[in-house]
Amino acid sequence: MTIRVGLIGAGVMGSDHARILSTAVSGVELSAVSDPEAARMARIVETFGPARMFTDPVDLIRDGGVDAVLIASPDQTHGALALACLDVGKPVLCEKPLAASVEECVRVIGKEQAMGKRLVTVGYMRRFDPGYVEMKRRLDGGELGAALVMHCIHRNVAAPSFMTAPMLITNSAVHEIDISRFVLGREVRRVSVVTPRRTRLSNMQDPQIVLLEMNDGVVVDAEIFVNAQYGYDVRAELVCEKGSISLTPPHDVTVAHSGSESFAFPDDWRPRFALAYRSELQAWVGAIGSGVPAGASAWDGYVATAVANAGLKSLASGEPTEVKLEARPACYS
Amino acid sequence: MTIRVGLIGAGVMGSDHARILSTAVSGVELSAVSDPEAARMARIVETFGPARMFTDPVDLIRDGGVDAVLIASPDQTHGALALACLDVGKPVLCEKPLAASVEECVRVIGKEQAMGKRLVTVGYMRRFDPGYVEMKRRLDGGELGAALVMHCIHRNVAAPSFMTAPMLITNSAVHEIDISRFVLGREVRRVSVVTPRRTRLSNMQDPQIVLLEMNDGVVVDAEIFVNAQYGYDVRAELVCEKGSISLTPPHDVTVAHSGSESFAFPDDWRPRFALAYRSELQAWVGAIGSGVPAGASAWDGYVATAVANAGLKSLASGEPTEVKLEARPACYS
Amino acid sequence: MTIRVGLIGAGVMGSDHARILSTAVSGVELSAVSDPEAARMARIVETFGPARMFTDPVDLIRDGGVDAVLIASPDQTHGALALACLDVGKPVLCEKPLAASVEECVRVIGKEQAMGKRLVTVGYMRRFDPGYVEMKRRLDGGELGAALVMHCIHRNVAAPSFMTAPMLITNSAVHEIDISRFVLGREVRRVSVVTPRRTRLSNMQDPQIVLLEMNDGVVVDAEIFVNAQYGYDVRAELVCEKGSISLTPPHDVTVAHSGSESFAFPDDWRPRFALAYRSELQAWVGAIGSGVPAGASAWDGYVATAVANAGLKSLASGEPTEVKLEARPACYS
Amino acid sequence: MTIRVGLIGAGVMGSDHARILSTAVSGVELSAVSDPEAARMARIVETFGPARMFTDPVDLIRDGGVDAVLIASPDQTHGALALACLDVGKPVLCEKPLAASVEECVRVIGKEQAMGKRLVTVGYMRRFDPGYVEMKRRLDGGELGAALVMHCIHRNVAAPSFMTAPMLITNSAVHEIDISRFVLGREVRRVSVVTPRRTRLSNMQDPQIVLLEMNDGVVVDAEIFVNAQYGYDVRAELVCEKGSISLTPPHDVTVAHSGSESFAFPDDWRPRFALAYRSELQAWVGAIGSGVPAGASAWDGYVATAVANAGLKSLASGEPTEVKLEARPACYS
To answer: Is the pLDDT of residue D271 over 90?
Structure first.
């Protein structure tokens, strides 16, 4: 059975998802696309083959030729579109964040809880990165003892002009929040944001260090630096009682030239997490077929946003901030 | 359009191809399988979904529900099956070697030449490994100047009991032969096999060093060691006039434990070249759709076997052996 | 001219210094040794050649056959012995810490200031480690822009039984304090100690994360983990505006064996910093000859102890603690 | 007791030895220097302190104020000067080669044999490089089984203008010959030189691959490339029955900058082998004191030259060449 996917959003992420779905995922076809800009839709149809075009994303969601929906439209639209998918009972993969506000996230999990059924997956693709998966596998294997500290690094080459200091938390650190929860299997109970000396190559507070205290005491320190210039670089080290696991910066070759031996950093998150994006989509398609959810749930999407919000408060106040979460509905355990 | 693939051979490699085709490749479905052992066929159908079963592979090849054929049966059957595919004009991906003898390889390329059409792809999957692809890209980019020397290492944990000293060349070194031709874009004109001290953990001449002299003078030295014990390890360094490019041994994490920091080797070629196998199959499916061949051609399959044969002579004689090739038909240039 | 050195303390560090002085440093001889235990003194004399033995270290300090003094006795004796050296105007290399209390450190710098002459060097040997030296050189070179964040890791295999939670700061973190000041060229203005989940392999708060805020806003985060089990591991990464510099864990070989490729960690700080210790002693001897001080000064020793004390307050209170320093005497600028 | 060393040769290597002896070695002083150029001698005396100057190196050798001699003059003078040292019974460290001809080497070992005493050390400093030492230690430890193959790489940035193709063997490969013998503990029985495509950045046959067959069948393949442009790079991998040991290219830091992470190569052999040179000199001084020889003996110097000569024949003829050695005198076992 081939899953017919409708894609909402034909921008950078949407186009990338269209490419992966059309050229690298089994059991799926891109059957519909929606975007306010007709030209962007047309480009996707030209490049990746026949798909019907919808101006209104809700029409796409309701269309009988669409089995499942992939939301890659602007962040503030995510929550309403995810809810619209739930209205018609269709599986949906929503790019992070699940919704722009905690309240909207709560509505989504409330609706899933009411339906007694999980249809929403949130696109925290790092959960499919082989490095993090292996890190979690080794931790769960037990040989290294309990986790104690996790060091994370998240560096972009240069932030887009619309980026602001709070967005380091809501757009970037949110990945560190989700992946820490995934690897450690624990919730965050407190967030502190430390503000080091700023780079002069930006007008905002960049870098920031986000400290997460998990509910078993593990401390995660995540450096977020979105104007790091030298490359896109995401690292993590998990320090356990008897040993430590570190992600290896992915690279296929080293080159000895002009006095040094080097490997190249990717330009941004798409090449860095290319394997993760493919696996995420493949797993989503597989989960639709099998009915067994894979990837980050709506609950995970809600928590990431809630923890990021606590981070925003800490950034503003300079003080550690407690994270307060809803009770976890049974369907997410 | 979905390509309906018939798989011949339900052993280790066949099952792996079935898995990849069914779970990780776009635009394809496994529609038929053939194997002398019914139980092995049945296992594939159970695991990867409905596919018709054929006792006789030629029936599968001729079947109207099969658009393209994947040959993963024992080596000595490859040539005849590939020819049978050409008889009915169907695209075929044949696991290496193309055929067990040079003569049979010549028949395949002769037939393609006669048909004026390339339908055969040979499964030298390394051509899709990101490391070798990047190595070739950097060489072709020109920044490092001309290639001069290429160092290759090919180590297996332990050879199966049927392995013999000549098979180090025909089964293992043949990959080094193909990938050297791919990266360097040159033919081999002479082969010498050097026989170092043997490991006591085998009864045959293991390791061997295979020296290839390319037709522009580049020398490739390839250590083949099929009882290396410690892990499956394939490496390559391309030394150029102004710099050098080396494959990085793939690994996602390093672990600090018990006094050392380490990364793990894969157990065998399947995890090591998992990305390459997937990309090879995806490229093959794409090439069927587009009509533009991708991957190693029948010519490449013939040359690899011819060069390996020269290697066998050198192993027997202890002397360098010239490689004599047929003229290259126009359809392969 | 050969400098005649008197060594105070014949324990682990003292013996190591005796060995280095006697076998690897130019322009020096070990002429005297003092230790309360006669047997330990005798062992040094037997192993490293003729040196006079003193029961009372002050007799050694005052002896006419001693040109310079190396203090490697227990921490609480350092301050008084350093002052005794100043009394007789002899150069002294005092193992860290300079003194057990801030007050005693202040007495030493006060005395040097009064003498208008720097005779005291404190054994913060990392200032001679090639990695930190190169890190500083690259930062000072300017190509990477200003420093913003420094990540430090300090892990021991297992703490001795007398170790307590505060000693993670005074004995271990004190090295991170000194080397951060050295690399960054800045003073610390605030210290916070974060207490993650504890390892069950110790009875105290281990690990700890020490956050230093430098007076230009640079933030140093130093993980101190003295029961890390897997090896002695000291790392640092300096994140700058345009790039980042990391120490490479020193190792001479990698070994591929039993499924993985690995390098070994040193057992403790002596092999890890063997080059640094030799260079420190050589530089000290050179500085005595030239009159130009090298290495950490009494001021540096005082500051390290003062900052560590602020860290102790933060560990006890759970709050960030301001560092208050004496005015820096002119002789230390 | 301080060993008074007389240095012959005040060029690049001589000056470097003077520096190391004067600033980094225990138990020694530079008491005399000899060079045909007075200005070069004067520079050494100015920089490294009082030493008497001799125009005639034999005067230096015979001088009563010289306990031991370090020969760093041009290659063709080595043999005669070493013999002159033996004439007066003084220990001598002779930079490699021991002598310019096999015959002269034989005279030196004959003389030592007649004296029944080893006074000559040859400056194959790699024997003191921590990486090779560790490689040998691990091999001798037995855990990895017997050695089978050794891969060596020897690359210089650019050859001096006087360099010729045969000098790749006599000046560069000679180091690989010596270190292979040292690590493997075996003699070479056959040498073949393979000549790959030449770099266009030189007028001679560069690179070359030198194959050594040891007398237990181990094969060493050594790539010599003296115009490699990108940096000074010496590597080695020792492949054993159960595992493999590789030298790590020494570097203290990595730098992430401008799209890649890199470490720097040294410019030439002096920084690369700085530790080895210091240890070699320290060991030589220690050996003079203890009477127990350390480092490469005159026999080792003779063999390296004899094997290199066989390499020259192979380079000229294109054929493998047998190595014929004198019987090994008892004093060298």
So the answer is: yes
Which residues on C lie below 8 Å from A244 (Cβ)?
Answer: 228, 230
Q: Does position D311 have pLDDT exceeding 90, yes or no?
A: yes
| Domains located in chain C, CATH noted | 3-126+275-298 (3.40.50.720), 129-268+304-332 (3.30.360.10)
Interface of B with D in 249-308 (CB under 8 A): none
**Residues of chain A contacting residue D264, judged by C-beta atoms under 8 Å apart:** 259-260
Cis peptide before A166 (omega within 30 of 0): no
Residues 6+ apart with CB under 8 A from D191: D210, D211, D212, D213, D307, D310, D311, D314, D320, D321, D323
Distances (CA, A) of D314 to B211, D6, D194, D307: 17, 39, 9, 11
CB-CB neighbors (< 8 A) of C151 in chain A: 151, 223
- Could you tell me if B211 lies within 8 Å of chain D, comparing CB atoms? yes
| Both structure tokens of D202 | 């030189």
C326 pLDDT above the threshold of 80: yes
CA dist A296 and A120 (Å) reads 9
What is the C-alpha separation between C138 and D253, in angstroms, rounded? 10
Handedness of CA D72, D76, D81, D83 (dihedral sign): positive
Residue D67 CB partners (closer than 8 Å, separation 6+): D3, D4, D5, D31, D90, D91, D288
Q: What is the pLDDT of residues A3-15, one digit of tens each?
A: 999 999 999 999 9
pLDDT in tens, B278-326: 999 999 999 999 999 999 999 999 999 999 999 999 999 999 999 999 9
Nearest by CB to residue D248, choosing from C2, C135, C254, is C254
Choose the mutation target among A198, A232, A244 for the interface with C, i.e. most C CBs under 10 Å: A244
* Structure tokens that stand for A17 in this block: 């998802």
Report how far residue D7's alpha carbon sits from residue D72's, in angstroms, rounded to the nearest whole number: 7
The Cα–Cα gap between C114 and C104 comes to: 15
How is residue D4 written in tokens?
């008074």
Model-level pTM?
0.97
Given an 8 Å threshold on Cβ–Cβ distance, is A241 in contact with C218?
A: no
Q: Is B238 exposed, middle or buried (0-12, 13-18, 19+ CB in 10 A)?
A: buried
pLDDT < 70 regions, chain A: none
Q: How far apart are CA B217 and CA B247, in angstroms?
A: 22
Q: Model confidence at B333, in pLDDT bands (50, 70, 90)?
A: confident
Give phi and psi for C246, each to the nearest 5.
-125, 140
Question: How far apart, in Å, are the Cα atoms of B216 and each of A107, B219, B236, B328, C333?
Answer: 68, 9, 19, 17, 64
Residue D134, C-beta contacts closer than 8 angstroms, at least 6 positions apart: C252, C253, D245
Predicted local distance difference test score (pLDDT) of residue D333: 83
Pick from C132, C121, C85, C103: nearest CA to C236? C132
**CA nearest to B138, candidates B246, B58, B284:** B246
Residue D14 makes CB contacts below 8 A (sequence gap 6+) with D7, D8, D33, D35, D44, D70, D72, D73
Report whether C125 contacts C178 (CB < 8 A). Answer: no
Residue A87 Cα distances to A58, A61, A120, B158, angstroms: 10, 9, 12, 57
ipTM of the complex: 0.96
Selecting from C233, C249, C260 the residue whose C-beta is nearest the C-beta of B262 gives C260
